Amino acid sequence: MSDELDKLLARLKEIQAEGSQEINQAVNKEKLNDIRVKFMGRKGKLTEILHSMKDVAPENRRTLGQQVNSLRDKFQASLDQANQDLTHKLIEQRLEEEKLDVTLPGREPLMGSKHVLRIMEDDLEKFFIGMGYQVVQGPEIETDHYCFEMMNLPKDHPARDMQATFWIDDEHLLRTQTSGDQARVLEKHDCSQGPLKMVGPGKVYRRDDDDATHSHQFMQMEGLVVDKHVTMGDLKGTLEMIAKHVFGSTETRLRPSYFPFTEPSVEMDVRCFNCGGKGCPICKYEGWIEVLGAGMVHPNVLENAGIDSNVYGGFAFGVGLDRFAILKYSIDDIRDFYTNDIRFLTQFRQEED
Amino acid sequence: MLISYNWLQDFLKLDIEPAVLAEKITRTGVEIPTTDHPMDGLKKLVVGHVLTCEKVEGTHLHKCQVEVGEDEPIQIVCGAPNVASSQDVIVALHGARIAGNEKIKRGKIRGIESNGMICGLQEIGFPDKLVPAKYLHGIFVFPADSEVEPGQDVYHALGMDDYIFDFDITPNRADTLSMEGAAYEVGAIIDQKPKIEQIVLKEDGPAWTDSLKVEVDPKLAPKYYLRKLTGVKITESPLWLQTRLWNAGIRPVNNVVDATNYAMLLTGQPLHAYDAKTFADGKLAVRKAQAGEKLELLNEKELDLDAQDIVIANGKQAVGLAGVMGGLHSEVTDETTDVLLEAAVFDPALVRKTALRHANRTDASARFEKGLNWDNVQKGIDIAAMLMRNHAQATVDEGLLKASDEQRQPVVVKTTVSHINHVLGTKLSGEAVVNIFDRLGFGHELADDDLTITVPNRRWDIEIPADLIEEVGRLYGYDNLESTQPLLPETHGGYSERETKIRRLRKLVEGQGLNETINYTLTAPKAAKLFTKSDHRLVKVSWPMNSGRSALRQSLMIGLLEAVSYNFTHQQDQLTMFEQGRVYNLDNGKYNELEHLAAIYTGTAANHNWQKQDQPIDFYWVKGQLTALLAAVGLTDLTFKAAVIPGMHPTRTAAVYAGERYLGFVGMLAPILAVKNKNLQGHDMYGYELNLEALLPLMTTGVKNEPAPKYPGMERDISLLIDKGITNAQVVDCIKENGGKYLQDVQVMDVYDGMQIEHGKKSLSYRLLFLNKEATLTEDVVNKAIAKIDTALFDQLEAKIR
Prior knowledge:
The complex is a heterodimer of chains A (353) and B (802). Chain A has 353 residues and is of the alpha+beta class. Chain A has 2 domains: 2-97; 116-351, BirA Bifunctional Protein, domain 2. Chain A contains 12 helices and 9 strands. Chain A has a 7-stranded mixed sheet, with helices on both faces. Chain A has a two-stranded antiparallel sheet with strand order 2-3. The relative contact order of chain A is 0.10. Chain B has a 7-stranded mixed sheet with strand order 27-30-31-35-34-33-32. In chain B, strands 3, 4, 5, 6, 7 and 10 form a 6-stranded antiparallel sheet that branches. Chain B has 6 domains: 2-37 and 163-190, Phenylalanyl-tRNA Synthetase, Chain B, domain 1 (2-Layer Sandwich); 43-146, CATH 2.40.50.140; 209-405, 3-Layer(bba) Sandwich (Phenylalanyl-tRNA Synthetase, Chain B, domain 3); 411-479, Phenylalanyl-tRNA Synthetase, Chain B, domain 1; 497-698, 2-Layer Sandwich (BirA Bifunctional Protein, domain 2); 714-801, Alpha-Beta Plaits (2-Layer Sandwich). In chain B, a hairpin with a 2-residue loop joins strand 33 and strand 34. The N and C termini of chain B lie far apart (91 Å).
């Protein structure tokens, strides 16, 4: 009877060798399933061995049973492993097929941009709002009254020649300066209710032939502070902050100047940030660059607006946004702002806030 | 005005470097943008004495032996027509540098040895306009009285060792338009009293004042002085006088004209010399011009005079334009023997208008306009007369004729030391303040805090306390002011609600991929009327620079179109641009400025890419952008109606309404634009323009949270066949009216009118979204709604449901 056992055990060995080989050679999951059925299915080879158990002596059946189960477990483990390996292989294959050339360019959506003059304007507005200034707008079609007369520029005043004007009719004109906003705001402001702090940005117009340094249209920002105790030292401090904010300049100088609406009047220069004062084309070899005009509000301007100049006073300043942008970004032709070449426009994106 | 450093030395002791002084003057008084040192860059230029000068046969050249202070004379070949022996000339020696950094070397000209060059003034850096007429086309010859020695440098004799400050004066500081005025200013700055000399003129001719009947309207000329000089001999002025003139930017002419110019430079008082023959009829009048009167000026300009022009006239006609320029026929010529010299104060406003009217501004008119020192009129005329006496052999006839002589009293201004300190933010003592007025040469009285200042007539810009504050501030030094920040009660900074909304719109549009532009307000009148439904009148400027910039735009699109056209000519055709700005019109005599927002699109809806997913921009892309933009500011219920707008495609443009309110338009730009502007050819352009005055009030602010729905919705698709002429809006309106309260949204899924479809019809498919926010929807409810919609579409629009 032990012969029978030996025969079956030998047969088991053959099955083990055959099954292991088939599992190793299986190339897909279907094949693995076939192998499972062939060896472990209801009519599989291991089941056949168990069916032959009856021919084995009872005392040996246990040994044989153990051997068969052990082999079944081995097969199952091998099949599981093979299955897992195949899955990994499939995933790897798939991923390989999905491979992209990541160096090809991406699809870029259209990106907008802010005009460089608007960048200057917005930046300065935020700067002043932070210091408690209101942003005020006024009309571009201004009256002689607000643009000139209220600003202490009566008719026939020689200083009117400083600003060649586009007249519309006898009374109306395209504003040559944003100062008209000052007059309008002063008229409305009730000084007894607190200080006035405003900036007024906007377009202005002068009768000039357009060339690299002249434009018949440009942008200004006007500033005005009026209260009981506003000094020229306060003006100086404020102007220095502007210079520092816009140009990073720490060295500035004030020069006496003349504007009909301020007295005293000054202009501020900053040390040429390009050459540091040695002289270069940007500062026209002067070492200094004129950046703005300012002064203490002329008593006539206050009185014209019904404000008692014996009690109240203040300062005003005006900056050219075009000029600021030209200096800050080394722009060499003022017409670039208004011809709007798309390449010119988009380069300033990185300066937006 | 150009102010000579050397001339200033007549008045002040200057031991300060010119550059340092210039910076000081700039910071304290008048801006000096540039300081010129004419000899800069020049080398080895000496005085030469021409010993012999022989013509080189067959050429225009001369061979000259020239003494230049060396052991032997040197030989120079000279091509100038006016070279001659015995002349003192400018010689550039071997190794010299002349204007334009040009180097002079010895060499041979036509085989003849030449050891230098005899120079004209231009060759050593003089501009043409300063060179005396007789030396304009040849070499310069030193006048006989020049006291120059061969071999010495030419710079001093020609005034080229000077430093010339360019006083860039502001209109209020015309007091520095004279050497004396400049000396007062610089003296105040460096704390020195300038030495201003008074003169006493010797009159040795007969009394003359009864020989001329002079009529002057003192309103036109509050001061009008005349002197007569006889026996004048016209020649060249002495060199020292010529150098002072050309260093001041004035070309020397002759000893009479130069005398008047010199006196003007010194005193600030413009003068005019007439040939006395002009008034041979014994009459002189200062009056307004008569209708039809004509005058030919010195510069040969013929004027039709205006009734507001002030003229100087003899008994017959106008002979000079007062304060501006003399007439050609009263001019001093080489034959003149008797001169009538005029010094006056004319009405500044009238002179200004006359100079502007005839486009003829002069050094004199600039001074009359900006004001004169009324106390210097006599000094001006006496200086000029004295110079003619000294240099033109003139006899000064006895008597100064004062045809008008109004007086101006010095201005007295009262203020307080504390007020000055309050405005400047300083803590100056009364003494310190008084010291400043002392430096300025102003009269002053200090009683405790009260300050009384008497302003001399030479500073007619000072009238009110603020003017005094400026004087104190600038002379104390703006550099010395402490920088402070205003210490004021708290103010709340920010934008108005309107400005905030406008900025929000700009930001949204930029986020949609549009690039902001700023375009010109002024355009051509025809262009200004495009892209608007408005029939309001154009606003035009009365004196435009050119016709292309004469009217104020009524749309922003016209500027965007110009920008796009510019970019097309620069090979840029992928363009999405916007502008936010104003448009203008005139309505019933009222000027209006309206804030608008406009966008223009051409090219593709994304940048070019290798995957060929570049969708060309079309009407629906732009409409989608506009719809999304408006939705973002709370406007979802919009109506689009086909509309005709000048400049827009007549069948591809819609007017946009929110309720009844017209917001603007969206569409394709008219192809016909490319007929007039070839740059636009081959480009499809789309865009929109919105009137923000209509839009801003509709923009929502303040959102109330609405929770996201918890219950699922239901979608149903319907397809229908319908007449081609029926619009999507009609169908959607019908669906919405009949869809019941749970219909949330209607989306167009497909539009088809191709081959498979009956002629004159189209097929439309919609997806309907139903949702009950309170409970789960039942099939039954939705089925009922759909049935009602189907019926309505059939009944109202004859739609066949498919």
